[in-house]
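Need fresh eyes. Consider my entry:
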Amino acid sequence: MRIRPRTRAVGRGPRRVLSACVVLALLAAVGGCRVALTPPGAPTTWPTESAGRWRWQWQLSGVLDPTVDADVFLLDPVATTAAQTAELRSRDRRLVCQVHVGSVLPTDPDASRFPAVVWGAASRRPQSRWLDVRQWDALRPVLADRLRLCRGKGFGAVALADADGYAHRAGFPLDFDDQLLFNRRLAELARSLDLSPGLVNDVPQVAALAPDFDFAVNEECVRLGLCAKLLPFVEAGKPVFHAEYTGSTTDFCVTTVGYGFSSIRKDRELGAWRASCPVF
């Protein structure tokens, strides 16, 4: 399902902005008055009144399509160029980079910077390994540089992926509290580098971590029956960017739009294709 782009208020003064928003509200209930993007150098903001209304795109493979009708783009910071982020920002898109903070691939450009002692068992990505998140002093410099790459390329927010090694056979005796401390440190690190932090999955810790993160990214909460556990973000007026890989938007959108999520249907390779749920 494709949603037509919403009209933006572009007046130069408060009265013209207000008038535009009033007209928009009368013409389309799905509109809303969107806040202008923060320029580079500051973290992306997520206005409470827009929560649940963001049209989003998640693309980590293939040739980037900047014309996708979305407000928010979640992208790979290594594959995405500064020229591409500049083009997207010129279209008033909010940019989120996805950084793997709890795992490493041998082919990662910075893989050799992680000492051998922090490499654990096989992770969910092919050939990847979990990291020992208890070793903050060893991990922080490398992770900080991963986040600086995002900031340097023009991203204003970061989605922190693989932040749930404690729930898997990571090769270390990680527990709930080890992961909680690590994830909170990550959120603090992101903010110190002028990035808005987002939590990817890690549903069992959502209730504890919602105050520390600005948004959530979730995969397949409908299929897994876990959507209700993401409500702490919604109740705090924070966006939940949700994707399903199976099923029809006609079916799962009824559930997720009711929860207040921004939902899409994607293929697992996360290319350019997407089908979007309605935005109200």
Residues 84 and 90 are 10 Å apart (CA to CA). The first helix runs from residue 14 to 27.
